[in-house]
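Dear all,

This email documents one entry for the complex benchmark we are building for the journal club exercise. For each entry we list the sequence lines for every component of the assembly. Then comes the predicted three-dimensional structure of the complex as a token string, followed by one or two observations. Please use this as the template for your own entries, and keep the labels exactly as they appear.
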Amino acid sequence: MKTKLLLFVLLVGLIYSCKKDLDNQDGHQTTPLSLTVPEGFPPLIIPADNPLTVEGVELGHHLFFDPIMSSNGLSCASCHHVDKSYSSAYHINPLGDTVSIMPHVNLGFKRNFSWTGRFSTTEQVCMGDFEPEFFNTNMDTLRRRLSNSSKYQNMFFRSFGDNNFSAMSDIELKNYIVKSIGQYLRTMISFNSRFDQYLRHEINLSQEEFTGMAIFYTEQGDCFHCHDAPLMTSNMVTNNGLDSLPVGYDRGLYNFTGAVKDDGKFLIPTLRNIELTAPYMHDGRFKTLEEVVEFYNSGVHQNSPNIDPIMTKSAKAFGLMLTPYEKQCLVKFLKSFTDTTFVNNSAYQNPL
Amino acid sequence: MLIFVVIGGCKKDDETSPSTNDELQLQLKFTNDGVPLQFDTIMFANAGGYTTSFSRLQFYISSVQLIKADSSLVEISEYNYVDARVASTQQLRFTLPATGHFIGMKLLLGLDSAHNISNSLPATVENINMAWPDMMGGGYHFMKLEGSYVDSTGTYGYAMHVGKNAYLVNCTISHHFDLNAGLNAKELVMNVNEWFKNPAIYDFNVDGNYSMGVMAAMTKLKNNGTDIFTIQ
């Protein structure tokens, strides 16, 4: 019953005010959209130059699933699969590195994005999707396609008061697109996993899940320092000891800053829906959660440069020393972060 | 009306009733025995005999009180979160309920028991990341101090975390100063190396390179922490 009530609350939060009170300079009006933040979550981070509007979210939702922006038939959804919590297994970057595509879940609460955390907004990340690595967008073709679409002419005008695509500069058009997609992504809130329900005192965890939680939330496993609820990530950029001597893509943030202190550092990913987002780590080196747990149990390279001090506590010198049963319980607990309500939410899925 | 005028006239000169514009601005500074803190560089002499670096320093300050000459206290704040890597968290501003001459300051490094309750603080990312798990007693980390140290065998990490009501650090700063009408600016300086000395040396290889859940380690840090601050 409580679950239904919470879902209702979220839906109410998604219901927009019918009052169109965002007057824009060109006279068109947009409808502010107010989201209800679940209890215990931090405030949503909304860029001052991109407030949520009903019209903007709708446009972004359509564009996300539409290959109209690409010259290769790809859309955002090609790499962000709904059933995988809007992630995908592998992407090969231009340098030939295997990159795991991060999930889209609770992005509106994040301050840094991408595996190296070097972007501060989703809009910045989306801007990279026009590049040859992803959409290989031909802007003239895109302008023509949008001009020929009465749907997008209407949606762009209602969102931004501008649908004169032929007069838009490349950057103006890209900005409209990434702003609308950014708005859509911020509406995608997960708050109804079994663990969320447990925290709300709606259900009990199984004995195995509870044992896993005790490992997760004590010094025995010490997972909580980087993956505490409700976001299941501290959003820090750090080195978890994957490699004793990182090379190439595995050097992480160092590849962008050139600073030795950043060697081997990556953004700590959320564990929400972790069951759905295999493979794991920035390069997808671990195929299963069991492999991930075994890495933390016995495979951390404590001599890795800049390794997070949390990973080198003296009690972990020989690994976590978890028993097979404890490892099994920890995996069970990790699976309690799966939010099927989120991945099955038709409000986020393909509207085309 | 006459009564109010008479009462007002009885106030002592050194206990003036300030306007709401009277403020104390405490600018946090961080040193290691006088050397300004610099993150991610192994260069600082540690009281335990090691060379150390710092990668994280986050903490709460609560119950800031001014000490009058007669030893009575004037409370000026509830709690503040400070991250030594984030400048915007390092300037604390307090409205002053009293001005005059003071002989010191008391504060808690951490959260008083009224605030050290799980989920009682606003759900900001900072407060969420400072949570102390319920399974380990609940509430919030009072402090996270992390970095690396070098000994004769190699480089290792350390994570000094303090939490739980029993380990709340009571800091007293003896310092004579005057607070006047308007804005008063002072520097509150933390000597990070004080965590590792006086009254007892904290040795990473003996006392442990982490403290969370280790009562003896947190006790030593609590006792060492009483004199980490000075006012300048």
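Observations: Residues 1-15 of chain B have pLDDT under 50 and may be disordered. The helical segments of chain B are 2-9, 125-129, 204-207, 215-224.
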